[in-house]
């Protein structure tokens, strides 16, 4: 059943259309922190914080997610093809260009790398943004690609009053693109762009009663950013949602698909939640 999500802007309504718990009988399954859904909404690619990349097909009935079928799974590897081991396995963000080039961000050993989904091989980009990470566990969790294929990265934490948005320019490396204002205790964990070039930032905070989720939208081409809060959930409304992807369905509606990182804890789930944006 669809339900209206809590939104703070009367001109934007985020309607939940699906909530699906995905399970697989495999010891490696879980910990998904980065995800992309294909433009038609039928294929999912995700990376886990234990060093794996997977693909799956998504089945829907009248727009509601009814099944997920795993089609590919492989361990992440270094440029020579050797399987990554700790502390190099913690993949947190995923972004895929329109022509299929994939990138993943890692924390612990902070880096952003080109990713070959077929064999899991990763090749670190030649540079990193000039940024002082707050901790080993607070790297570039949010990774996304703009319509012009510019790769952007947002750290989970920063010591200032805003979260920097870095853009990767192949010829010159990373540059500061924007500064997103901090609002309360929420921290960035995922990001994606819609067809209009607006950035959707997925944020999370942890409370004694459970996880809270927030989604803010920004126009990075506007000096004022045109910030809109689309979702701000109560504690335990959702699991540990850490990745977001934005796509357009057959009816031209903007759809948001999110996935949770279960941290490999039995009390948590790999939950896929979907919303439709109506304005």
CATH topology: Neuraminidase
Distance between the termini: 20 Å
CATH superfamily label: TolB, C-terminal domain
Mean pLDDT: 93
Described by strand count, sense and barrel closure, the largest sheet is: 5 strands, antiparallel
Please give the number of β-strands. Answer: 21
Tell me the strand order in the biggest sheet: 1-2-21-20-19
Low-pLDDT segments, ≥5 res: 1-11
How many alpha or pi helices?
0
Helix/strand/pairing category? mainly beta
Order of helices and strands: EEEEEEEEEEEEEEEEEEEEE
Give the topology, please.
Blueprint: E1 3-4, E2 13-22, E3 32-37, E4 43-48, E5 52-61, E6 64-75, E7 91-96, E8 102-106, E9 111-116, E10 121-124, E11 142-145, E12 151-154, E13 162-169, E14 173-181, E15 187-193, E16 199-207, E17 210-218, E18 228-232, E19 241-248, E20 254-260, E21 270-278
Antiparallel strand pairs: 1-2, 2-21, 3-4, 4-5, 5-6, 7-8, 8-9, 9-10, 11-12, 12-13, 13-14, 15-16, 16-17, 17-18, 19-20, 20-21
Structure description:
The protein is mostly beta strands and 279 residues long. It has one domain: TolB, C-terminal domain (Neuraminidase, 6 Propeller). It contains no helices and 21 strands. Strands 1-2-21-20-19 form a 5-stranded antiparallel sheet, with no helix packed on it. Strands 3-4-5-6 form a 4-stranded antiparallel sheet, with no helix packed on it. A 4-stranded antiparallel sheet has the order 7-8-9-10, with no helix packed on it. The model is unreliable at 1-11 (pLDDT under 50).
